Amino acid sequence: MGELNHGSHGQASPNGTPAKRRRTADTAFPDRSPMLCSGHMPHTDVPAGQPPLSCLEKPLPLDGFRGTPEEIEQQWYDQVYLGSGDRIKQLTWRAVIVGMLLGSILSLTNLYANLKMGWSFGVALTAGIISFALWNAFVRLGISKSPMTILENTCMQSAASSAGYSTGGTLTSAVAALLLLTGQHMPLGVTFAWIFFIAVLGVTMAIPMKRQMINIEQIKFPDSIATAETLKVLYSEGKKAAGQAKALLYSALFASANAIAMALGGEKWLGTVQQHILGNWYQRTIFFKWDLMFVGAGALVGMKTSLSLFIGGTVCWALYVPWLESQGLLAAGAGYRDSVGWTLWGGTACMVVASIVAFLFQWKSIARSFSSLGAMFSMNKKRHLTDVEKIETPMTWFLAGQIISLIALSYLAYTTFDVPYWMSCLAVFISFFLALVVCRITGEANITPTGAMGKVTQLIFGGIAPGHVTANLMAANITSGASSSSADLLVDLKVGYLLGANPRKQFIAQFSGIFLGTLVSVLAFRSLVPDVDALQAFNAPGARTWAATAEALGMGFSHLHSIKVLSIIAGGILGLVLVLVPRYFPAVGKWLPTPIGFGLAWAIQWNDSFLFFAGAVLGWAADHLFRSKSREYKIPTASGIIAGAALTGMAILMFSIYQSAR
Question: I want to staple 75 with a disulfide (CB 3.0 to 4.6 A). Which of 65, 253, 444, 589 is the partner?
Answer without folding.
Answer: 65
